[in-house]
């Protein structure tokens, strides 16, 4: 493809995206094909001679699209939103066009500008929340080992590592467990209260008990807006507990909820954040910015970079001591120019536009919650604070909790198999619940009512039989 063909195909691609977005409702929200269908549909080898672009795009529409789960579909209510505001799509396009590999200061200036100046909080854009948690734990681990080495200079680092222990709640995202696996450290998973919130006292007891047993607490990860039920760990209680222990790193994972804090009415969830050593949020969830885009903020960047600096001659430059090189802030050397799309979003929507989106998202969740509450066959199972509602069929007085779980599993399976709407399950207080999240960027009350009608039709069929 030469530049003149790119000029034409690029415009066609924008048209294709626009048509996709405006006709999305006519597609099935989830694929009707089975995993592996593409093996038969496409040749197994790359073509030796170049294919015609029209043939490539025909295959996209006829072979690839049938296997796609349409996250931006108005009937998609699973997981959390995945932003795709148009300015951010343009940002990704420009980033690919510039094609720089942003590991040194020269290509990361906007990261700093958009994070520190525009948002006045964040320090770096990353690919995912999981990476933010991992990098924070790596920094905490290096810091913990350094401290122990100072105390016990003759003891082997491997032995010191075996003493370290991290903490999170049972409601924390699985990325904390994965980070602990990668860091090769122990992780103690604690029980939250009945609202899914980890409490200071629970953490304190666990840390004291572990210290007594010879372990060394070094990292606590708490969540604001958990994945299962959007609960909030009690940061104002946890912060002072963590500070009682020497050199324990407190990380705050607000992957989904963080963008809501752009609205003053949600800022109270940030109480206690002054105790945090690091904080992450994903604009690619609730800030309409296309995947991937996570923000990581750290109070002491030297603690982070001292865990990750490797500085070969071929990467050094004359601004080494004056400019920020984000290659020292994470695992990969090369970085995409992600801040561009976030900057485009901030410039194009303004904070007011993003607040408007967040508010509508939350208002529609409340609307759905009220619909559930009006139907006494159902119950709401979480405190609806942002855009996620967990609900389930209550079941009859003679049914065991296990039977009620089975009934709800059946309900969700039937709904998802129909392809009419898509939702996913979660465990809340050890029970099977259905998660309904407001995801579509332009969702309306009508979309919520359509979803509720589909859910209640399937519930009626399940409870009363297909003919009633
Ligand atoms: N933390 C929380 C609270 C999440 O909800 C999620 C994903 O939904 C993650 C972390 C992981 O996010 P990522 O896919 O960006 O790694």
Automatic annotation (TrEMBL):
Keywords: Decarboxylase, Lyase, Pyridoxal phosphate
Domain of life (superkingdom): Eukaryota
Keyword Lyase part of the UniProt annotation: yes
Swiss-Prot/TrEMBL cofactor(s): pyridoxal 5'-phosphate
Modified residues (N6-(pyridoxal phosphate)lysine): 285
Alphabetical GO biological process terms: amino acid metabolic process; carboxylic acid metabolic process
Protein's UniProt keywords contain Ribonucleoprotein: no
Lineage: Eukaryota, Metazoa, Ecdysozoa, Arthropoda, Hexapoda
Protein name (Swiss-Prot/TrEMBL): Tyrosine decarboxylase
Species this chain originates from: Diatraea saccharalis (sugarcane borer)
Pfam families xrefs: Pyridoxal_deC
Gene Ontology molecular function: carboxy-lyase activity; pyridoxal phosphate binding
Family according to the record: Belongs to the group II decarboxylase family.
Gene Ontology cellular component annotations, sorted alphabetically: cytoplasm
Gene3D superfamilies per record: Aspartate Aminotransferase, domain 1, dopa decarboxylase, N-terminal domain, Type I PLP-dependent aspartate aminotransferase-like (Major domain)
